[in-house]
Design brief:
Layout lengths: L16 H55 L5
Length: 76
């Protein structure tokens, strides 16, 4: 074997067999990070929906507030 040649692995890609475990670990970490990112995105979407509903509700309450003040008798 030439000193510049890389030992071939069982899959024929030319990476040493020791790297297979390292690559698998990196794939697991990547998959875990992707899953966490997707959960976070879902949580943010839910929070945006809640925020929008609260904004609508608050707007309705603020619009109703002047009407309630007009109905309430003033203290003289």
């Amino acid at each position: 074997m030439c000193k510049n040649s890389v030992p071939r692995t069982r899959d024929g890609l030319g990476l040493p067999a020791a790297r297979d475990a390292e690559i698998e670990e990196l794939r697991k970490q990547r998959d875990a990070a992707l899953a966490a990112s997707q959960r976070t995105e879902a949580d943010l979407t839910a929070l945006r929906n809640i925020n929008q509903r609260l904004m609508v509700e608050n707007t309705e309450l603020l619009e109703a507030a002047p009407e309630q003040r007009e109905v309430t008798p003033s203290r003289a």
